[in-house]
Amino acid sequence: MYDTSISEKTVTQNSIKFSARNVQVHYGDTHAIKDVSVDIEDKTVTAFIGPSGCGKSTFLRCLNRMNDTIDICRVEGDIRLDGQDIYDKRVDPVQLRAKVGMVFQKPNPFPKSIYDNVAYGPKIHGLARNKADLDEIVERALRRGAIWDEVKDRLNEPGTGLSGGQQQRLCIARAVATEPEVLLMDEPCSALDPIATSQVEELMDELRKNYSLVIVTHSMQQAARVSQKTAFFHLGNLVEFGETGQIFTNPQDERTESYITGRIG
Amino acid sequence: MTDMTASPSGALATDARLRARLRQRKRKQVILQGLGLGAISFAGLMLFILVASLVSTGYKAVTQTHLTVEVFVDPQEISVDKLPRGGFRDVLAAALIKEFPDMAEAGRKDLRALTGVYSNGAQFRLRDMIVADPGLIGQTVTLTVPVSDPFDQLQKDLIKRETPQAQRRVDDRQIAWFDTLAERGMISEPINWGLLTNADSRFPELAGLKGALVGSFWALLVCFAISFPVGIGAAIYLEEFAPKNRMSDIIEVNINNLAAVPSVVFGLLALAVFLGWFGLPRSAPLVGGMTLALMTMPTIIISTRAALKAVPPSIREAALGVGASRHQVVFGHVLPLAMPGVMTGTIIGLAQALGETAPLLLIGMNAFITSAPGTPLDSATALPTQIFIWADSPERGFVSRTSAAILVLLGFLVMMNGIAIYLRNKFERSW
Amino acid sequence: MTSIAFLALFAISIIGYVWNITAVNAIRKGGNRLHSLGYFHGMYAFLVSFIPVFVVILLWLLLQGPVIEWIVAGGLPAGEYDGLGTGEQQLVMAEIKSIARGTIFGEPEEWKIAAAERLTRLYTLSSRAMLIAVVALGLGLMFLSRSKVSAEFRARHGVEHIVSGLMIFCATTAVFVTIGIVASLLFETLKFFDKVSVSEFLFGTNWEPQIPLREDQVAAEGAFGWLPVILGTLVITAVALFIAVPVGLMSAIYLNEFAPCRLRAVVKPALEILAGVPTVVYGFFAVLTVAPAIRAFGAQIGIDVAPNTALAAGGVMGIMLIPFISSFTDDALSAVPRTLSDGALGLGATRAEMVTTVLFPAAIPGIVGGVLLAVSRAIGETMIVVMAAGLIAKMTLNPLDSVTTVTVQIVTLLIGDTSFDNPKTLAAFALGMMLFIVTLIINIFAIRIVRKYREAYD
Question: Which residue among A127, A197, C66, C340 is least crowded, i.e. fewest CB within 10 A of its CB?
């Protein structure tokens, strides 16, 4: 009976994955997110843009409850993943994060081998029954991360020895290995050079076939290149949300227009 | 965290195997947290026991049992021209015999049992009184003197009356006398100021910390006078002026290592160099202070460098930009801004020095000295070495005094650290 | 006389300061622009006269004692002094000095009284000479610095050079202290090895320095083998680490990752208190509370525990080291970048899994460095063991037994008489040398590990 909703959602194309309603976030005394409501679709890249400090990263971290790790952070409102309240008392953030993977701004491979980096998630969640199983999961994840060909001969070397772009793709592969349904990416390319960035952007487009992707970026070009939906945040408010093409060509709000034309930011 | 047995339906539901696994993972988390809490509780418990055992033994030394007697200063025993010699002991004995007339004809041994109530210092107290005012001879004076250690312990219930006579240091007869004196209101238990105002003594009831406090004061003064300027000079040079070369590296490594050299090795250095080669006097606070200075210096250097580092380069650039020399920048701008940090580090370093014992033992600051030192060159003890001496003394009365002395020492340390924290909080600024 | 010399020094320096400033003002009135401010000319005069004279006074005070004694000793009647051993010579000299101070015991020989008078005369002479030297040198330097005052004179550079020189001197003191430690230890240790062979000391299994030995018997007796002493040290260190490492580690992990803010705010200062307690207090705690408790417990379960068991000293030392280990672990854990733990949590690891599989392994080098420093601390710790451990060296690994340590032996050998020529005293220096070498090696190693580890994450 638990599995009904999962099987249903695979049928409908671009169904709503996350639906957030009236989300408020407080950091101590600071009101960081003010009344944000947004729907995030499956098999879509949604970009959060806005000037720095506008709350886009904070909101992203609400989606897999990474804000729980910060003591002074308080989240109110309603965020549902496939119709289920993720801030429900009975929901375990550990389990949620297995379903909602995250890739961080700075590539953060563990100081372990490439293999162990990717196998980390499957191991802790008990996804593999035996070594062969695990090998297969690792290979599949690395292929999805578009890095398999580069590392297949040196799986036992430390992940920290890779180049920046490779490290970030390794982190994406590591996130993919737990078979998430949503991937959150917090400025995944800000620490990378242009070539590595374009590789990661290609990868995002590829991943869109299987996952719902949410990326935070402060590069508007990147948002325009990779996303189908764009949300513009300003001072903790969600100013505008819609089709990427429409946001960039015909913004409804003047703040959005000012930002896109470079007057604020 | 949440138990997943009542997992909600929907996207976050999983099969039974994964849920069981999750429960197991959560259990590991609980175990780890339990171990952590256990460790902290253990440390807390130890701190509690430490303080509790010191306070529970030390509070007994807060008061000292005193005996108040009317003493007739018999001119036959004490005469002006023989002062300061005289039969003070006999005069005191007579005062007690007046209370217990049946003891008048008693033998010498019995009489000694009776006068054992007096502290050994009682006769000297009387002597000093009469030397100061010879007019008292022939009069009756009211004298309040400490009682000797066994009776002090009897009063404080440290010697139990139930114990068989053979196993306690006062016999039944002495207890009876003491009780009679108490009934007549001659026994009192005032605050034991002597603990702070007396110098050391072989007799617990007379022993005090004055000598140790003065000795520690001199030692710390010398320590400060040497380590503060030298430490700051070294830190400024290393942080602001030193070229990055081999020599600076060697000095740097040296200071870090010096901070970790066992304290007893500094004692050996002081013994061989200060006492052996330079011929400075043993047991002197001057030598103690010099030794402590060597140990405090690395602490001051390290904290001063940290404080200098915390001053942002923009301040230096601003001053250099208006044409100040590097020296003017450092002494006029950077050092004053770093001063709170420097002071904090120095006070913490001095607090460490105050508690340091081993090197002082090696240079003989554990001598038995019954007067406070007048200058840093006189023989003296220091607070921690006095604690060591008392802790080693066989008399029961020294146990509570050791604890009390430790509480005094800890009081000073808390005060110094409190000042350091206050300075840090008051003047700390974020750049 | 000494204080008069210091007063003269201050007076001369300050007069020089004022004089130079007046001179500067005169030049300025004449319409000339000076290179340096008047203040610097004044400071120049102050420093130029103060520092050399100050050094002269210190050297004089330091050297006059030995020199005068040497002169007095040279003037003693032949046969009375020069034929004696060092110890007896010291005794004679001490007697002469006490006669000079006026405390006379019994009837000293005529020549001693004469020597005492000579001593007093020389001291008076010396202090007068010092005063004259101080004033002459100080005035000379004052005039020298006055003569330099001119519009072109770069007084600021002069002052800054002197101050830099002073600071360099301060910075090199650390090196001098190290050299002093090594030299003094080495010097006495070599004397020790004249009397006891090196192999005897390093490999002997018998340590009985308290037994009075005839000089020629030392080697044959073999009572200066340090192995049982170092073994005892290691037993106590092991006990201490057995307590401190797990407790310190776990509490740091808990405080860093699990504890609510309010608990952290209470526990951190408590640990700092524990770290600031002087070791003599821990020693008393061991004797007063812990050792009797362990003995009582042992008696209850039928085990015979020695009164000064290694367990009590080691256990209390462990308590002392808890805050040490915990603060190093804390630093090491905090140095691991937050992104790593976020990465693990973002993959759905529980906090415990994150700690054990990512955070802790990444912090291990820093923690190992801290533990090594704790080992060196434990080996060099003195007061706890002096008060709570035993005096007799035994080749045993049993922590219930009473063992002795290197530091205990150093202190017991040196408390009381310290003439520098008997093997007992010298043995303490040999032990000190070994202690210094062992802890130095551990420290260098540990500091290097910690630093390298910090660089890895900076």
Answer: C66
C31-82 per-position pLDDT tens digit: 777 787 888 888 898 998 899 999 999 888 888 877 888 888 877 777 667 6
The answer to the question of residue A10 being in a domain is no
Q: Count Cβ atoms below 10 Å from residue A116 Cβ, excluding itself.
A: 19
Structure tokens at C422: 């008997």
Q: Where are the beta strands (DSSP E) in B103-226?
A: 140-146, 187-188
Contact flag B366-C432 (C-beta cutoff 8 Å): no
Entry pTM: 0.86
Instruction: Look up the ipTM and state it.
Output: 0.89
- What tokens appear for C20 in the block? 């130079």
For the four alpha carbons of B366, B371, B377 and B383, in that order, the dihedral sign comes to positive
Compare CB distances from B10 to A83, A92, A124 and report the shortest one's residue.
A83
Measured at the CA of B159, the angle between CA B157 and CA B163, to 5 degrees, comes to: 120
Q: What is the span of the domain harbouring residue A22?
A: 17-260
Tokens 């001051």 belong to B300
CA distance C452 to chain A (A): 16
CATH class of C223-457: mainly alpha
Neighbours of chain C (3+ CB pairs under 8 A): A, B
Q: Per the structure block, which two tokens stand in for A102?
A: 């995250």
The backbone region for C384, taken as left when phi is positive above 0, alpha when psi lies in -120 to 50, beta otherwise, is alpha
Q: Report the chain B residue with the minimal C-alpha distance to residue C318.
A: B43
The residue of chain B nearest to residue A97, with distances taken between CA atoms, is: B12
CATH architecture for the domain at B210-427: Orthogonal Bundle (1.10)
Overall domain count for chain A: 1
Phi, psi of C142 (to 5 degrees): -60, -45
B397-427 and B335-355 helices cross at what angle (nearest 10)? Answer: 170
CA distance B141 to B384: 39
Measuring CA to CA, which residue among B379, B182, B358, B213 is closest to residue B285? B379
Is residue B52 predicted with pLDDT exceeding 90? yes
For C347, which of A105, A111, A121 is closest by C-beta distance?
A: A121
Let me know: does B338 contact B304? Beta carbons within 8 Å.
yes
The residue extents of the domains of chain C are: 2-152, 223-457
Whether the Cβ atoms of residue A47 and residue A227 lie closer than 8 Å to each other = yes
* CATH code, domain carrying A213: 3.40.50.300
Q: Chain C partners of A96 at a C-beta cutoff of 8 Å?
A: 348
Give the span between the Cα atoms of B372 and B128, in whole angstroms: 18
User: In angstroms, how far is CA C401 from the centroid of its own chain?
Assistant: 31
Q: Provide the 10 A C-beta neighbour count for residue B121.
A: 19
Please indicate whether, in this complex, the C-beta atoms of A125 and B9 are within 8 angstroms of each other. no
- Residue C5, by phi and psi: left (phi above 0), alpha (psi -120 to 50) or beta? alpha
Single out the residue of C397, C37, C408 nearest to residue C209, CA to CA: C408
Output B350 or B171, whichever has higher pLDDT. Answer: B350
Using pLDDT thresholds of 50, 70 and 90, give the confidence band for residue B413: very high
Beta carbons within 10 angstroms of residue C202's beta carbon: 13
